[in-house]
Amino acid sequence: MDEWIEEFNDLLFKTINSDEATIKATKLKFVNMPDIVYKYRTASDAHLDALKNNILYASAPSCLNDPYEGSLYVDFKKRWKVLYQTFINLFYKRTGLRLAISVDDFTDQDSFKIEFAKCIGVYEHEMESYKDIWSIADEKVQVELQKFQEDLKIENDKLHRICSFSDVNDSPPMWSHYSADYTGFCIGYNIKELKNDLTDLLLPVRYTDEILEVDDSFFNGGKLNNSFYIDSLTRKSTQWSYEHEWRLLLLAESQKTSQAVNLPIPKKIILGKDVSDEDKNKIIQIANINNVPCFKHVMRKDNYAFELIEL
């Protein structure tokens, strides 16, 4: 992964309430943003119509092809103090008695449980039953944490819409997956030169094998900081790194899972090597309306790269 992306993410997501860090992150992103980002398309009527009208569609995370989109993770072993504090609070609420212990005084769960037992008057011969009760409680907490993680993902899905791009136009997997095996086309947009909201909302994807972990800044505030949502939606597994993805991350305008995004006139359109003559003519006809240059990928004879020829 590009080192600047790591620095960008640290500035944007790990620096709390710092305008200076946000400004620095924005400048860093702009300097490294590609002049052209590409959208791979099939030659379907819907995609041709969107090309004609200079729009694309942003989708809910759950509608994309990565099942891990927007995932967040809570580690029970790291967060047990926060969760166990609820037991102390619940005991006080039900009995009116304040216990002379705090979870912050303990380094492990077992020692806390033993001291908690003493404070609430559990006898020695009752300790095994007491431990069994805690085991059941821990299992329930794990179930609730799993549900909590799923709820976070659902909330993320309600809040955001994503429109994906790539900074490469010659990726064989991308042509295969998103342009119907080279029979479609690829649109090149210069979002960088706009210097508007779209420029600000276009973010690089960071490729990592770790799901984003919700940390103390969530629990201490009692409400999930929106930066967690954004961070989770701009990271993907390293298995997707071939996509070289940039994505527009938008707030959902409604409960619909898809919303239109108005885009500038493309800078170029690249046709797949196997596009049909009929589709080629349709695409060129649309491109000519706004004087957009069209190219086509052709296979080279001396290596595995593609060559662009202008049509």
Strand content: 15-25%
The ordered H/E elements are HHEHEEHHHEHEHEEEHHEEEEHEE
- Count the E strands: 14
- Secondary structure class reads alpha/beta
Mean pLDDT: 85
Low-confidence stretches: none
The major pleated sheet works out as:
5 strands, mixed
Oligomer: single chain
Total helical elements? 11
Q: What's the number of structural domains?
A: 3
Please bin the fraction of helical residues.
40-55%
Cα-atom Rg, whole angstroms?
26 Å
Q: Give the neighbour order of strands across the main sheet.
A: 1-5-12-13-14
User: Based on CA inertia axes, which overall geometry fits?
Assistant: elongated
Cα distance, first to last residue? 35 Å
List the SSEs and their pairings.
Layout (H helix, E strand, L loop, with lengths): L2 H11 L5 H14 L4 E5 L3 H8 L2 E5 L12 E2 L2 H20 L13 H11 L7 H33 E7 L5 H7 L6 E5 L7 H5 E3 L1 E2 L4 E2 L2 H6 L4 H8 L1 E2 L8 E7 L6 E5 L5 E4 L5 H13 L4 E6 L6 E5 L1
Parallel strand pairs: 3-8, 7-9, 12-13
Antiparallel strand pairs: 1-5, 2-11, 4-10, 5-12, 6-10, 13-14
Helix pairs in contact: 1-2
